[in-house]
Write a structure and sequence with these properties.
Pfam families: Acetyltransf_1. The chain is α+β, with helices and mostly antiparallel strands. The protein has helices at residues 15-23, 38-47, 89-103, 121-126, and strands at 6-9, 50-55, 58-68, 72-80, 108-113, 130-131, 148-153. The chain is 25% helix and 28% strand. Residues 25, 78-80, 85-91, 113, 117, 119-120, 122-123, 126 line the site of coenzyme A (COA).
Length: 157
């Protein structure tokens, strides 16, 4: 099914709906993702920010971003409700983060893929990301196995 949607920047009040989309993603229970709390999401939205995808009145997708130094913008918490997948929602959310990176003159977007979610690597490759063995994810959970790091260069317009 093709879902129509719009993308907007988050406000702190989006935290419960953002968290609900994350929890509906079906992530492996061993992943630190599944232990994320609403309070942690709210902290991210207050201190860093993100985007939600809205279809009708409903939040159907989410993504966060957070700088790591002057050159790198990290992308995190990307999720789309199962029933809204396959309509380009995630592609649009990732593009919104890349636009933030471009506007703020970051050189690259960096993200971490959990060892329990390796099947998503092909999705990011499709969007121009590549596994980068030389890069590290600064905000990785110390309780989880080291993630696979992927990066994409952001060219100035
Ligand atoms: C991965 C996820 C975000 C994709 O959301 P989506 O809205 O269905 O993705 P899109 O519709 O924007 O897909 C964009 C393209 O990627 C492709 N794609 C989607 N999932 C893919 C996958 N797992 N592997 C390879 N390609 C994939 C789509 O077919 C589409 O290709 P096309 O434009 O050529 O048709 C969604 O499946 C999800 O929420 N998964 C669980 C959470 C998760 O793994 N998040 C990532 C954390 S690192």
């Amino acid at each position: 099914m093709n879902v129509s949607f719009l993308i907007r920047s988050t406000t702190p009040g989006d935290a419960p709906a953002f968290h609900a989309v994350m929890m509906a993603a079906g992530m492996d229970p061993r992943s630190s993702w599944t232990r994320t709390t609403v309070a942690q999401v709210e902290w991210s939205l207050v201190n860093h920010g993100g985007f939600v995808a809205i279809s009708g009145e409903r939040v159907v997708g989410c993504v966060g971003h957070r700088p790591d130094g002057p050159a790198t913008l990290t992308l995190n918490k990307l999720a789309v409700l199962p029933e809204a997948r396959g309509s380009g929602v995630a592609r649009a959310l990732v593009a919104a983060v890349e636009e933030v990176a471009r506007e703020r003159h970051f050189e690259r977007v960096l993200l971490a893929v959990s060892q329990f979610n390796l099947s998503v690597i092909g999705f990011y490759e499709k969007l121009g990301y590549a596994v980068n063995g030389a890069a590290t994810y600064a905000f990785a959970s110390p309780l989880s196995p080291p993630p696979v790091v992927m990066t994409k260069q952001i060219d100035a317009r």
